[in-house]
Amino acid sequence: MTLHARHLGRALAFGALLISQPLTGTAQEAFSPSQVTITVPFAEGGGSDTLVRMITPYLQKTLPGNPAMVVQNQPGGGGLPGTNTFFRSAQNDGSELLAMSSSVFMATLLRDRQVRFEVDKFTPVYLSPLGAVIYVADETGAMTGNGIEGISVPLVYGAASPTSADVLTILALDLLGLDVNPVFGTQRGAARIAFERGEFNVDHQSAAAYSSNVLPLIEAGEAIPLMSFGFADATGEIGRDPAFPEVPTFFELYEQTHGKPLDGPARTAWVALFNASISTGKALVLPQDTPAEVASAYVAALEKIFADPDFITHAKAEIGDYPQSTGEAALAQYSSATTLDEEAFAWLADWYQTKLGVALR
C-alpha cells in the first residue's frame, strides 16, 4: 500500500468517526452561518451545476437556521483551478461547500500536475452516482444483444481530453479488442450531436441525456446500445445499471468476448476509473479541518432530504433513479474514487503511453 493510500485510509476512517455522530444540540449550535456558498468549479448548466441547484433549496430548509444559499460558478480548467482555490481559502465553519465531479476525481487518480489540493483533506457529505450507456451507430454492423459481434469498422469517439472521465469509455472499448480512435476536444453534448451527424460512430451519454436524447435514435434504428458501465452496490460489486437493466455491462461483454473475466491490474485500474466517474460522479465536500459538529449538521440535513418524497421525485427526474449517499456510505465511496495502487497505476500509465501517447507522471 502506498503512503498516499495509507494516509487516505486514516483520514477517511477519522472522518467517518466524526460525521457519524448524531446531530445534537451542540451540533446545531456549532452550525451558525447565515449564508452558505457552494462553489461549483464548472459552468452553469452542466451536470454539477444542475445537481447543486437542485439540492440547494432542500438544504436551505433543513440546515439549522435555514441559511441563505448562494451558488458560485468558477468554470475553467476541468474544475481544477476552482478546486485549488477552495482548498487554499475556504472557511471551515460550514459556510462553504465545494461541488466535485468525475473530472476532478480523475485528475487526482491520474496525478495531474495541475492538482494543488489534497483530496483526502476534504470531508465528503454528499455523493451522487451517475450511470451511463455506450452506444454505436447502426452502420458499424452491431446488432442489439450481440455484443461486439458484427462491428467491422474502426470506431471514432469524441472525448474531452485524455485525462477526462471519457477515458473510461476508450479503455473499455480497447479492452474489448475494438479499434477505437478518440478525437479530443469534444464535450459530451457536442459529441452526441456529432454522432447524429455521422461524424462519430460511437458515443456515451449519462443516464438523463441517454433517456431524453439517445433512446429516440435507438427506437429509430439509428443507434445500437452496446453496454453500460454498470452500477456498484454497497459492497462494491458491479452489476447492471438499475436505470437500464436490459443493457449488459462492460464486465459482461468482456467475459462474453474473451471467455474469461477481466482480472489483474487492468481490472483494478478500470474499477478505479469507474469509481471516479460513475460511483462518485458528483459530490459535495467541506473544507479541510471542518469541525465534527458542522459535518454532522450537513449529514443530518441530507438524511432528511433523502427521505423527502418531493426530493425523491425531483431527483429521479433530474439525475435518474440512483441512491444518494451521505455519512459513512459517502466516505467509503469517496475513498474508492480517490485511490489507485502502484501496480494498477503502472499498468494504466503503460496503456496511456501505448494507446494515447500520453505520459502519466
Automatic annotation (TrEMBL):
Gene3D superfamilies: Bordetella uptake gene, domain 1, Periplasmic binding protein-like II. InterPro entries: BUG (IPR005064), Bug_dom1 (IPR042100). Keywords: Plasmid, Signal. Residues 1-27 form the signal peptide. It comes from the Bacteria. Belongs to the UPF0065 (bug) family. This is Tricarboxylate transporter.
